[in-house]
Amino acid sequence: MTIEQLARNNVRQLTPYQSARRIGGNGDVWLNANEYPEATDYQLTQQNLNRYPECQPVSVIQRYAAYAGVKPEQVIVSRGADEGIELLMRAFCEPGIDAVLYCPPTYGMYSVSAETLGVERRTIASKSDWQLDLPAIQAALDGVKLVYVCSPNNPTGNLINPADIRELLAMTQNRALVVVDEAYIEFCPEASVVSWLAEFPNLVILRTLSKAFALAGLRCGFTLASEEIIGLLLKVIAPYPLSTPVADIAAQALSEQGIATMRQRVTELNARRDNLKKTLAECRAVTQVFPSETNYLLFSLNDSDKAFKALWEKGIILRDQNKQPGLKGCLRISIGTQRECDAVTDALKTY
């Protein structure tokens, strides 16, 4: 047998998630990964790298719990929210038996994690306004253990109607968990459903330090849920998911000063996003700029392939969304510095 034949069949057939770094490109304006555009400044304070770290660093857990308004027993920290997505599947889904459900266009790792683990992927397309098709979801729930809902949604930028999330939680009670991915919630904190955790035992929330906290390179995410669910996730998480430097910096970011700095950053970035939305709409090549509650904008163009390639050749790297269901002709742009945003609109105005 060849090495490839030794691999699991589903892995041989798997198309890996095409992250921004995996796609590559040669540029100096990187606006394709929804990162904060400028580096943050932290200094390591822990000097005990000869010791294994805590599985769940106490200071990180306590500070995030205080920030999120939950008990420490309702928090698990992991290597980005991506690990949280997978931990839930590992804890709740029997490969070859159970299914997960999600509603494209949405974040691609729900699909990749399920396929990697041999868990059935069930999709219900969002409606034309990118809201949940609840009757179709209800009809497809047999055998589903996890329903992933991204709000604000990536890549569309819109919030999911909270009344629909409530209805979904009610229809899945005692049947499945509803996992609300709030990776971008700091840009619209009033829309969080974290206060619903006491009301809905089947609610799980994913969070991250990658976006508003400007720490994408740290790989630090959180899952918020009932103590019972967190206890099950602790059974399947790796012994040392966070390195000591990651825990050190995460704790600093979650300090009172760190949170205040994050909120100021969000205020400035949201204002820049709203200005960019207006400027993009003035470009002749742009046909529509969609509303966003995040640090990115989705917009459509007359010829998105031509625009994407022309920007790429100028060293301006955006995210092509043409292959996402319902997003033909669309590109996504992360909100960069003012200089970077101007470079994009100046280039688009030449068409």
Query: What gross morphology would you assign?
Result: globular
The biggest sheet amounts to: 7 strands, mixed
Percentage of residues in DSSP E strands: 15-25%
CATH architecture of the largest domain: 3-Layer(aba) Sandwich
Low-confidence stretches: none
Tell me the strand order in the biggest sheet.
Answer: 2-8-7-6-5-3-4
The ordered H/E elements are HHHEHEHEHEHEHEEEHHHEEHEEEH
How does the helix and strand content classify structurally? Answer: alpha/beta
Terminal CA distance reads 54 Å
**CATH topology type of the largest domain:** Aspartate Aminotransferase, domain 2
Q: Give the C-level CATH assignment of the largest domain.
A: Alpha Beta
Oligomeric organization of the protein chains: single chain
Number of self-contained structural domains? 2
Helix content: 25-40%
| Beta strands, count | 13
Query: Considering the protein shown, what is the CATH homologous superfamily of the largest domain?
Result: Type I PLP-dependent aspartate aminotransferase-like (Major domain)
The overall average pLDDT, rounded, is: 95
Total count of helical runs of at least 4 residues: 13
What is the CA-atom radius of gyration, in angstroms?
20 Å
Pathway: Amino-acid biosynthesis; L-histidine biosynthesis; L-histidine from 5-phospho-alpha-D-ribose 1-diphosphate: step 7/9
Enzyme class: transferase
Modified residues (N6-(pyridoxal phosphate)lysine): 211
Family: Belongs to the class-II pyridoxal-phosphate-dependent aminotransferase family. Histidinol-phosphate aminotransferase subfamily.
